[in-house]
Structures
1.
Amino acid sequence: MLGLEDKVVLVTGGNHGIGAAIVEVLEDFGAKVAYNYRSEPGPRGSLAVKVDVTDEAGMAEFAERTERELGPIYGVVPNAGIIKDNLIIKMPAEDWHAVLEVNLTGAYYTIKPVLPKMYERQEGSIVFISSLGGQRGNIGQANYSAAKAGLIALAQTLALEAARYGVRSNVVAPGYTETDIVKGIPEKVQEVLIKQIPMRRFAQPKEMAWVVAFLLSPIASSYITGQVIPVNGGQYF
Ligand code: NDP
């Protein structure tokens, strides 16, 4: 229906949370999905590989293996992310570096080995997972917000460089989504956060995955590139 049947898509952090929902929805649309993880594999996907996104050589091997076992990669979804929250004045430098390394540099390591082949084939779609924090900043999340804003600039630059090769690059910017990250927030704080959301609820992971599928689609979003789609219940636009 979306033209994703038998397309090979590589997702990072596909074992749980938003990443697992992306793997599930893409498979339901007929795609062959490879994903990586750090801890334990998830329930779906055609290929699951344990490799850290901060391992440049490992990510190149993961891309090669995906092409060898599943076929030419059509789509990439850099989704893996971590938080290490603190006010700027209290943030240890190691937490700054760790979040930038996983959330931003990890995305660069993910797309770099795949792009030359996409350019040759004149076909491909990349969808980065940013955040509300990357659009407007967030108290206690300087490292995370800086990394997520960096992803938007990376995606827009890639859109400009890749357009002539038939490759598109877009961003989904989720608001608060009910995964382990949000479930870990104390209930009282959750209540305060929900009051800030016009739709008065957190998102479900699949509500991000549908938008990812749309932006990957060679049919439904064929003329969309360099865009940021906020999926945040009206919290910020
Ligand atoms: P989870 O913590 O549930 O999942 C994070 C995923 O990233 C896991 O699959 C994890 O693998 C993987 N991961 C983390 N670090 C690495 C690493 N170094 N190498 C490989 N994989 C790694 O988070 P969410 O599903 O909530 O978040 C997914 C994305 O969505 C993130 O980029 C996050 O920033 C973004 N986002 C989430 C929001 C939310 O409210 N939940 C809001 C806005 C954006 P493993 O489990 O094996 O460690």
2.
Amino acid sequence: MVIRGWIIPPPKAPIKTVTEFEAERRAKARLLEAQGLLKSERIKSALLKVPREEFIPSQYRDYAYEEVPLPIPGALATISCPHSYPLFYEPLELARGHRFLEIGTGSGYGAAVAREVVGNQGLVVSIEIDPVTHEFAKRNLERMGYADVLLILGDGALGYPGMAPYDRVALTAACRDFPAPLIEQLKPDGRAIAPLVEGDRQILTLLTKAPDGVRREKLCAVLYVALRGGGSP
Ligand code: SAH
């Protein structure tokens, strides 16, 4: 199976134990640090704490710490590769106390990691457009004890004005540009990150809302599913 150029490993019955997953999780964090992708202690503790395998359908569970996106329930939905989360959260400088908005809940894993980073003084709101995927994320987050993550079913390109303004916004699906409502819902000096489509490539782009306008900084080439829905630019 291939998702947007990624080769997905074959489904199989899971056999790995909790101890094996823990060891894989620690090894993955060490590798991400060695690669220079993981720098902040807080993001590292979050990655060590959240069991990624619990956010993956059982037939792909054993691949939890491999660098591939894996299929999850819903049309075109995936849990992103493990390195995606430090890749997004480090340049965002996601930190304790932040109000964080995620577009594309997927499995709910990214929202759980973000909740560990922002802590109970912060807030995580996550929007998913696919009802089947939204239900999957909801079940995962509730089962893992993340009852205070606010999950919204809808078009994330419109943001969620009810909890705005946000310190940080992450889009985990690719679009042509940052949707205007998301920039409006950012606090002054707030940051947003998204894979932006440029020709046949996607460039992970960091946006900073400065007093004199928005600044965009291109970070690296990436490959994510496309943002859907009428509100997408
Ligand atoms: N962050 C996720 C990975 C998300 S993959 C995780 O941690 O698992 C991208 C997701 O974006 C998919 O689930 C897809 O259904 C969703 N999506 C696509 N367009 C959207 C939109 N306009 N609003 C909200 N979600 C959207």
3.
Amino acid sequence: MRIANLDNRAVLVVGAGTGAERAVDIATVSDGRFGPNISAVFDAWAEVTEWAAKQDLRALADDGVDIDRRLLGAPSPAPRQVFAVGLNYHDHAAESGFESPTNLPPVFTKYASSFTGPDSEVTIPAGGNVDWEVELVAVIGRESSQIDESDAWSHVAGLTVGQDISERVSQLRGPAPQFGLGKSFAGFSPQGPWLVTPDEFANPDDLELGCVIDGEEVQKGRTRDLIFPVSKLIAALSRTVTLYPGDVIFTGTPAGVGVGRDPQRFLQAGEQLDSWIDGIGELRQRFVADSNE
Ligand code: ZN
């Protein structure tokens, strides 16, 4: 199942990957039982998936509408908690000048005010060095703590594409790294285009992901190389905190970010960043200068 946040309403996505995706409004076809917004759908996730499995999506598509990507929001736009994970691929830890984590990778947050849907224009803060980090994003589907690694995937509502856009000057200025704010400027957390449930993948632990700037490939990796894969991350996080439906986890980025290059490279006004994960879809960000600069 694919589910999206279209114009602040929860929709089922039919025909994904065809370029002619259609949206079926969940509140309408469930006679008001679920929705209308996607946060309400996460709060009833088990019931929604059980209901959706019984629907004839192809028949429902006739009542759907064509998806206008400009109306797509982040698949979980108002999570109670956002977790972002650093140094979770060996090659990215190395390019960042750190040892790979063994106990637990660094965990920080991206504030939800930085969330947008898949297609957006992002302003480069004045004097900022804006970098790219394509990431697999997992959204939680039920409340729990002390989750066992072997059972962790059953706590995932779905997966989507995320960009952990990062402004390196403020992030690294010190005296200690300023991860949360440096990665939470307006528009710095685009996600989408929709959420794909784990059962849709042949192997949800091995997805290809990457990003390109104006057509030039800058990152390409596979999630099988995550040091802490989704199941391990969820188990580890849940030893400290309770996870809630709709919670968002940015799982970390593979090698190829701008700050790790020699010479370093950052996004410039006029450039376009396209990010993708196999079996999910694509994000498209256009960068513009700060008009106050
Ligand atoms: Zn990141």
4.
Amino acid sequence: MVKCSFCEKPAVYINSISKLAYCKRHFIEYFERRARRTLRKYGMLREEEHIVVATSGGKDSIGLLHIMIKLARKNPKWRVTAVLVDEGIKGYREKTIENLVKYAERFKVDYVIASFRDYIGMSLDEIVLEGRKRSLPYMPCSYCGVFRRYVLSRVARELKATVIATAHNMDDIVQTYLMNIISNSWDRVLALTPVRESENSEFIRRIKPFYEIPEKESALYALLNGLVKPEFVQCPYVKYNIRFTIRKMLNELEDKYPGVKYGLLRSLQTITSFLKSPPGIKERHKCIVCGEPSSQRICRACLYRIQLGLVERERVESILKLAREDKDLERFLRYYDII
Ligand code: SF4
Ligand code: ZN
């Protein structure tokens, strides 16, 4: 039996880089200290905040919610609301919604569940079928990611939130980093910072308090605190996403060469510091369809909505009319096969 490096109790976790072993109590202390340190290091929170915690009901986001609630209880100027975006994925999302509801009732947390059906007009399952019918070139996860961010921003604005906290951990970040290198999406690489702000005052600041925390630690934190059941539920669309192959590959590399993920995170930080303030990542525009902050004239969610036939005909016609006098807009719409 391996003993905790800080007491006599049996270890539940060994950090593969520092080689330190932790019992349950010392692991929870260590984990919360790291999260607090990340919040401080990147100046994530201000004196007075209404924090929306984006939660899927899974282990990482429930763990983040738990930490934010603990912090807010010590700071009366911080208020926390959990927001769960229900994409409408049959047989999957119902289970994680149950986790959030149970957690919120147990710890008396305010929460909102917002569905794709209410904000976009269709569930993800319906969107995927409609997209196939229309031969659109997108994978389920592309719609899911774009619409989820869109719904989250809309709900956060309705709640008058000052900041949105997401549970992206180090593994998520380095996976996304590699995916964006592969697709040559440098604007998205540059969006992978621990804090994301914009010159546009309507853009709600986004923070990632688990930016430097490995996935296995955030999962263990939720399990040791009894926040979620140790069951495995997987989205049926996972097989279409390159992320999961990259995740497997990175985990294999990390097992063989501990520190690979930290190395990639440092590489990402170097690149973002070299390429600061590129023109594409600022939400300079207001989407001409929905009014949300956007880096383009029409935000990606509205582009998809137009392509899926979810924007009223008159609205689309007025945009096409505008494009007749606006060459940039015309080029943009042509690029997406809208005209
Ligand atoms: Fe959405 Fe894809 Fe994740 Fe499923 S696997 S929840 S479709 S991003
Ligand atoms: Zn829009």
